[in-house]
Amino acid sequence: MAPKAKKNYPLRIHADILDAMKRWSDDELRSLNGQIEYVLRDALRRAGRLKERPPEVTETEEQKK
Q1: How far is the CA of 13 from the CAs of 20, 24, 54, in angstroms?
Q2: Is residue 21 part of a domain?
Q3: Each residue's pLDDT tens digit, 44-61
Q4: Rounded CA gap, 53 and 56, in Å?
Q5: Residue 21 contacts residue 35 (beta carbons within 8 Å)
Q6: Domain ranges, residue 35
Q7: Is residue 19 part of a domain?
Q8: Is 18 part of any domain?
């Protein structure tokens, strides 16, 4: 199954929130964009507004086969 295409979306965000997200993304070794997407996905999943998708197979799992 092919992954869905990502779309660009301009985001206006308060500077304090952006700074906090940047520090968090640095701590988690993610890009700022990746961290924002991670937080949004987690919030949507917890609210029951996002369908669970099957876990993707990683290289390590492929090597075990």
Answers
A1: 11, 16, 31
A2: yes
A3: 999 999 887 666 655 555
A4: 9
A5: yes
A6: 14-47
A7: yes
A8: yes
Q: Does residue 6 fall inside a structural domain?
A: no
Q: Return the residue matching tokens 């990746």.
A: 34
* Helix-helix angle 15-27:32-46, to 10 degrees: 100
What stretches in the chain show pLDDT beneath 70? 1-2, 53-65
User: Which tokens in the block code for residue 63?
Assistant: 């090597």
The CA-atom distances, in angstroms, between 46 and each of 27, 34, 49, 51 are 23, 18, 8, 10
What total number of domains does the chain contain?
1
Both tokens of 46, joined, read 């917890």
Residue ranges of alpha helices (H) inside 1-65 are: 15-27, 32-46, 59-64
> What is this structure's pTM?
0.70
What is residue 5's DSSP assignment? P
